[in-house]
Design goal:
Elements lengths: L1 H28 L4 H5 L14 E7 L6 E6 L3 E7 L4 E7 L8 E5 L2 E5 L14 E8 H4 L5 E6 L4 E4 L2 E9 L4 E4 L2 E9 L4 E15 L4 E6 L2 E6 L4 E4 L7 E6 L4 E5 L4 E15 L4 E12 L3 E7 L4 E5 L1
Parallel strand pairs: 2-6, 2-8, 3-7, 3-9, 8-10, 9-11, 10-12, 11-13, 12-13, 13-14, 13-15, 14-16, 15-17, 16-18, 17-21, 18-22, 19-21, 19-22
Antiparallel strand pairs: 1-4, 4-7, 5-6, 19-20
């Protein structure tokens, strides 16, 4: 019994040390001093919710060429509207100290919120950021977008641009009717969904969330650990389709096309190709018509399929 108690005590100290190390590493990663990073009380900052209010900011669209958000638990929505100026509406029940703020930094429109270390009361706060773009601005293919939030949802609709980076840790990501040269979408535990998009190069990654992509693209990559991947294309990609999952299924729904080379690998799942009309297991390589587009799919325990639209 004595040895058991010593083992339990040692285990407890190891857990405490791991937690404190985590706080320290996270704090230093966020740029805090060693004292602030090691002061655990910072993570239980007392902050009461206030009455919900909406705050509006306007910006001259002619002076902005990029939009960036760096938010914590704020939902974010980006959309076009019938207006001449860029309008940012922030709805929040958080004290002014922690509420998101919008400001111009050179030609970049920034929306940022201060991180709140209130672990116990995290769910009492409601925050949303809506960025409304004049139609002429939203249609400009030269603009850059970098939309990031930690635990909020992200929704982006009907905009064009040169690049779109979207990132959320635990919120869902929805992108529809967007036209971009390149895009990167990343989430840890949220779902990623696109609909009716035209993006030349796309990189979509989720750790445990489902990926559902409806997009015309020349070069597209997917990656997830425990979520499934479904790709729907109205137009066959020119260069490649590549997907990798550990325990999720992979499905490509493609139109009739000029051909592709299909390279697949699965440990315990099945493989199906409607164009070649075959079923397989394990790993292999096959070609359809010209074999010009490179199609690669890899999963450990999920199925892999190429289906006709």
């Amino acid at each position: 019994m004595k040895h058991t108690g010593e083992i339990l005590l040692a285990t407890l100290w190891i857990i405490i040390a791991a937690i404190l190390t985590g706080f320290l590493s996270y704090g230093l990663y966020k740029g805090h001093s060693v004292w602030k990073a090691t002061n655990i009380f910072n993570y239980f900052d007392k902050c009461e919710a206030v009455d919900e209010q909406t705050f509006s900011y306007t910006f001259d669209a002619a002076k902005i060429d990029s939009i960036e958000t760096e938010l914590t638990n704020d939902n974010v929505e980006v959309m076009p509207y019938n207006g001449n100026e860029i309008l940012v509406e922030i709805t929040s029940n958080m004290p002014e100290k922690y509420r998101a703020k919008a400001f111009a930094k050179g030609t970049t429109l920034c929306v940022e919120s201060k991180e709140l270390y209130n672990i116990l009361n995290w769910n009492i706060y409601k925050n949303s950021v809506v960025i409304k773009l004049p139609y002429s601005f939203a249609a400009n293919s030269n603009h850059l977008y970098e939309i990031k939030t930690v635990s909020g949802e992200i929704s982006i609709t009907d905009i064009a641009g040169n690049s779109l980076e979207v990132k959320s840790t635990s919120g869902n990501i929805s992108v529809s009717k967007c036209r971009m040269v390149s895009s990167e979408m990343t989430t840890v535990s949220g779902e990623i969904k696109t609909e009716s998009c035209e993006i030349k190069e796309v990189d979509v990654k989720s750790t445990s969330g489902e990926i559902l992509v409806d997009c015309n693209s020349d070069d597209i990559e997917f990656g997830t650990i425990s979520g499934s991947i479904t790709f729907y294309a109205k137009k066959m990609p020119v260069e490649k389709i590549e997907a990798e999952s550990v325990s999720g299924s992979v499905s490509f729904k493609l139109p009739e096309n000029n051909g592709y080379t299909f390279e697949y690998k699965t440990t315990s799942g099945s493989v199906k190709d409607d164009f070649l009309n075959f079923h397989a297991e394990n790993s292999g390589r096959s070609s359809y018509k010209s074999g010009s587009c490179k199609v690669k799919a890899k999963t450990v325990s999920g199925s892999i399929s190429i289906l006709k639209n």
